[in-house]
Amino acid sequence: KRLIDDLRNAVVQKQFVLHYQPIVSLKTGAIYKAESLIRWLHPSQGFISPAVFVPIAEKTGLIIQIGDWVFKEAARQIKHWREKYHSSFQLSINISPIQFQNDDMNHVGWLNYLRNLGVPAHSIVLEITEGLLLDKSVVVSEKFIDFHGEGMQVAIDDFGTGYSSLSYLKTFEIDYLKIDQSFVRNLTHDSHDMIVCEAIVGMAHKLGMKVIAEGIETPEQRDLLAAAGCDYGQGYLFARPLPAMEFEQFLVGSL
Ligand code: G
Ligand code: G
Ligand code: MN
Ligand code: NA
């Protein structure tokens, strides 16, 4: 109850920051992408993980305002990085299914915001989960079609863990599949995981999608995923999610 009041207050006072984790090309090592991950800087408790407060935000509806802040912050950041470092830099944001399913999510406002900033829609990647695309409701498909129609890209987060149905791949145009960390963790010890990763890459490429592997912590995992044909990698081996300034230093160091 206390945390709910604090979260309401946090929205008003904007006690959030975005951290950024690089997404690395497994073919060239180049970094032209990153995922943004929200952090709450609580005035007395310090950083609180989104794993703790996002579920509360979803239950209370505060996720709409928080998600709006995330989108605008990410858009301003990617504008800056595209101008400063690389004109095709892309930033992913995580979207809760509750946002997509809610009529209050002002998705037309988001597209206008990008237009006014002068940021092309394809510089933003929306990370959504498989479950959302099994929702056949009009509120979901309408937003999806509007976003994608403007050129915004879509990634399936935690791919392979959600639902066994792949039917949504026929209905929605997806740009990236993100292989869940659970397939990467034991890659060097479990040949089944390698077979699953190769199968995901094979299917994705035939359907015109790129693959990002998450949770890469060792050079061996990176090399196996590269051998499996995986396009991009993300994980502590390269960098943890970093504050904007540290992310820029990492980027400059990698050039
Ligand atoms: O970085 P990590 O522990 O910090 O993230 C924990 C979880 O919180 C992940 O499942 C991630 O997708 C989710 N998450 C991180 N940032 C955001 C955000 O901006 N919006 C939403 N809805 N979820 C987020
Ligand atoms: O659900 P989503 O995939 O958006 O969340 C990614 C989560 O994984 C975040 O909490 C992020 O901080 C965390 N993460 C990123 N890289 C690694 C890694 O290499 N190892 C582990 N264990 N977690 C990671
Ligand atoms: Mn994610
Ligand atoms: Na994930």
TrEMBL record:
Residues 1-255 form the EAL domain. Coiled coil: none annotated. Transmembrane segments: none annotated. This is EAL domain-containing protein.
